[in-house]
Amino acid sequence: MASAQLRQIPREEVGKWVIIDSTVYDLSRFKAMHPGGLSVLLDPEVAGQDATEAFFALHRYEVLEKPQYKRLRIGLVAGEKPHIHGRIAGELSKVPYGEPSWLADGYYSPYYSEGHRKFQKAVRQFFDEVVYPDAIDREADGKRPSQSVIDKMTELNMHAMRMGPGKHLQGRVLMNGLVKPEEFDYFHELIITQEFARSSLRGYGDGLLGGKVIGLPPVLNFGSEELKAKVVPEVLSGKKFICLAISEAHAGSDVMGLQTTAKKSEDGKEWIINGSKKWITNGTFADYFTVGCKTEDGFTVILVERGPGVETKQIKTSYSTTAGTAYITFDNVRVPVGNTLGEEGGGIFVILRWTTQRKVFGKPLHSQAVIRAKLAGMIARAESVQNWLENITYQMCNMSYRQQAGTLAGPIALLKSYSTSCGQDTARDAVQIFGGRGITQTGMGKFIEHYHRTIPFDSLLGGAEDVLADLGVRQALRAMPKDARL
Ligand code: HEM
């Protein structure tokens, strides 16, 4: 803050002005424009007084940071210094349980090295300074994330890092050289994912090539060399967007019930695709579509480039339009057979392998036991999810890709289901604690309102909660020893 240039005003001379956090504000010209009205500012407990407590009971800190309100500052109370702060770019929160325990003061973790810590700090700084301001603006205007943010992410190779460890990182400078490609592991990926979530704006986060995280792996793992050489660099440099187009109006998580068809042309050189897809993240602005199709042999995944016969329309969901959620129609779209990802008829393998891995009053309020009980539940849920997540990440760091697919699909499905159900419980509790503010899109409870509104997405995307939990249990049942008895 530019407090250094502000003049010193003795407390007894503050007169008609107002003090907030040892800073003196002249509200005379602002009064009539105050969104909270005039009368509150004329209240004898506010006008000419220290209104710090009253102010922070009603506003988020960021209100004071806005340039139009910064101009109302005229001085500092002599001999005092402001000490209240909001979000400080790049810094860790000191609020208990406000960070995963490995980032909390005095805690240890077997999973993270000094290198991970430096990496986390740099990623947070980047998110706070570059991503967060754009997230706020785009949530407000509903437009797709700014290309300038996508380009800055490209400079750090963030798009490539979001795909996890692997060959696609070779030869790249990651996070300005902070981590070598061969050292990048699943904990680095986890750090990026969690910093993404911290921006608190669910739709925007998905808008930042969220479709790529699920749409590109089938290309990387099952595409021909020719296809990869063209598509992967374009997508990882943020120049083109890709999305995963599986679900349909008739079939959500039920992949085998899809109705979009792909038939071979007479000369056998092309696929001809017809059908529609619904709820496709990034679809409105995607250049490539990883499409699940019904074919003669079963279910086949095919990469489609935007072109004749492909149409995308925005779907208005209860999260923001920044995610580009689309309804897509394919009308006799012709695609070279070389765009087949994996085996013809082998599509279920291509998709399931990825979707199961997707993660992804008077007295203070806390003086009431019922509120503390809610907080206890919220803390326990967040801590248990984080610990389970770190354990699975650790297993991933030590298993081959094949072992991960075989051993971890069930636990990941259960963890995904558990974490989104915890998230929904926590969102409900948070709204109860915040009251009306928790259902208001502006002001103090805006992130609670946003979270409560958007958490159901996570419980549905990548496999509905109940379906995934059942998948996890079925995998466990298959592994039951045949000779074990009670
Ligand atoms: C620098 C001084 C102030 C500024 C710049 C300011 C600005 C604002 C803004 C931008 C809002 C809209 C709320 C939001 O969406 O976050 C608001 C609401 C409000 N303000 Fe202020 N305000 C100031 C001082 C005060 C003071 C001293 C009081 C008296 C206690 C007050 C009482 C209120 C009330 C009651 C609301 C409505 C809150 C709600 O809708 O929940 N404001 N103010």
TrEMBL record:
One GO MF term on file is: metal ion binding
Name its co-factor(s). Answer: FAD
Which domain of life, per UniProt? Eukaryota
Question: What keywords tag this UniProt record?
Answer: FAD, Flavoprotein, Heme, Iron, Metal-binding, Oxidoreductase
Record flagged with keyword Metal-binding: yes
Per the record, its GO cellular-component terms are: cytoplasm
Under the heading InterPro entries, the entry gives: Acyl-CoA_dehydrogenase, Acyl-CoA_DH_CS, Acyl-CoA_Oxase/DH_mid-dom, Acyl-CoA_Oxase/DH_mid-dom_sf, AcylCo_DH-like_C, AcylCo_DH/oxidase_C, AcylCoA_DH/ox_N, AcylCoA_DH/ox_N_sf
- Biological processes per GO annotation: fatty acid beta-oxidation using acyl-CoA dehydrogenase
Q: Which residues form the Cytochrome b5 heme-binding domain?
A: 1-78
* Keyword tRNA-binding among record annotations: no
Q: Which family does it belong to?
A: Belongs to the cytochrome b5 family.
Protein name according to UniProt: Cytochrome b5 heme-binding domain-containing protein
